[in-house]
Write a structure and sequence with these properties.
Blueprint (H helix, E strand, L loop, with lengths): L1 E11 L4 E13 L2 E6 L11 E2 L6 E2 L5 H6 L11 E7 L23 E3 L5 E3 L1
Antiparallel strand pairs: 1-2, 1-6, 2-3, 4-5, 7-8
Length: 122
Amino acid sequence: MVVAEVRTPFFNEERGQVDWRLLALVRAEGDELHVEAVSPEVFDAEMAVVDLATGRTLVARDDPEVWARNLPHAFRAGDIVISIITDSNPVEAVAEAPVPDEELPRIPPATARRADGAASVA
């Protein structure tokens, strides 16, 4: 089971600080998906997300738990933030594959300028 909160920051003038407003609560368990949203346009279960573990793109009906687990990576602007509250089966961090030496960028040696303006290799 995965439970996620969809929130947005707002400035609370009375308190003089940024607070969070809950926009939706997402609960996915097995093949079931429940979304309690403040308004329907706030949240779209047809939004595609990338599963970081496999690299495949999916929507909620494909696998609700995996979809909900990857929601935090789908929003990057900061006006909508998704936090996983509960995850009964968290995925381990995805290890990056090592990059072969032949694919690494080649950086030329630095050049310095002599007093006469000519370049010399440092």
